[in-house]
Write a structure and sequence with these properties.
The protein has about 270 residues and is α/β, with parallel strands linked by helices. Helix content is about 40%, strand content about 20%.
């Protein structure tokens, strides 16, 4: 199957500053994007989305009538738009302000101002998310691979599962936290665990430690998905027995390479 490219993309750009809209639209045109529509407010964006579904939304953080997190919540709660790829462009650097977007399954968070390299990488992540590109493994039949996805954010789970489905994974099991994941492991056979780090009840590190201490599950490869940048947290993660770390946003190309390394080495 032929892969889609930037010329196939239809992008909705939401930016309250007319100057910034022109600058970003020009940068997107340089990437040979097929179609670009621009609006300046949340109301205009919702009106546009009610009439037409783009391939990707690129949005500033704040508008005069709301914010990107409010718009993203409305998109994710829509039956027809819930899986719409969303990219944030922001000068915000505070982790707590960006965490909601990382937990909501955004395809990328672009700094403002961003370089062409930043933009190209983010657009490639969006294309990977929209495309179907089965993972080829020597030791597993991708169609029969069983993956347990653990995350307390429903939106993050859905994003992770979409990436995995695009790689050809058909058998996906969900758990809302580590405690539920342990119960699912007792009832169902899986080949891989993909888990968030920060979760109530039993977090990702505790789940990994439980798996490694079990005579039944100790062999399972574990991929930890985390937005943590703190060195102490990363040390705790690495000491808990995980096999690979993936950042939020969950980038398809990175995940594909990590899965191939994890599963074909066993």
């Amino acid at each position: 199957m032929s892969r889609i490219n930037s010329a196939d993309l239809h992008i909705l750009l939401i930016e309250p500053s007319s100057t910034q809209r022109k600058i970003i639209a020009h940068q997107l045109a340089d990437e040979r994007i097929g179609a670009i529509d621009t609006v300046g407010t949340r109301a205009e964006a919702l009106h546009f989305l009610a009439r037409m579904r783009p391939d990707l939304v690129i949005s500033a953080l704040h508008y005069e009538d709301g914010s990107a997190d409010q718009l993203l919540q409305q998109i994710r709660s829509s039956e027809t738009l819930s899986d719409l790829p969303f990219m944030l462009v922001s000068s915000e650097r505070r982790r707590e302000q960006l965490e909601i977007f990382k937990q909501s399954g955004v395809v990328a968070i672009l700094p403002k101002p961003f370089t062409r390299e930043h933009l190209t990488k983010a657009l490639n992540a969006a294309l990977d998310l929209l495309d179907q590109d089965d993972l080829e493994l020597e030791m597993f039949d991708i169609d029969s691979l069983r993956v347990l996805v653990v995350d307390d954010s429903r939106m993050a789970r859905r994003h992770i599962m979409r990436v995995l489905r695009n790689l050809g994974v058909c058998h996906l099991i969900e758990a809302e936290d580590g405690r539920e994941a342990i119960e699912r492991l007792k009832r169902e056979m899986v080949d891989l665990v993909v888990t968030d780090y920060n979760m109530p009840e039993v977090n990702g590190a505790e789940l990994a430690e439980y798996i490694r201490a079990s005579e039944f599950y100790a062999h399972l490869p574990i991929m930890m998905v985390t937005s943590e940048a703190n060195d102490a947290h990363l040390r705790n993660i690495s000491q808990s027995g995980v096999d690979a770390l993936a950042d939020k946003p969950f980038e398809p190309d990175t995940v594909k390479r990590l899965l191939a390394r994890l599963l074909d080495r066993r």
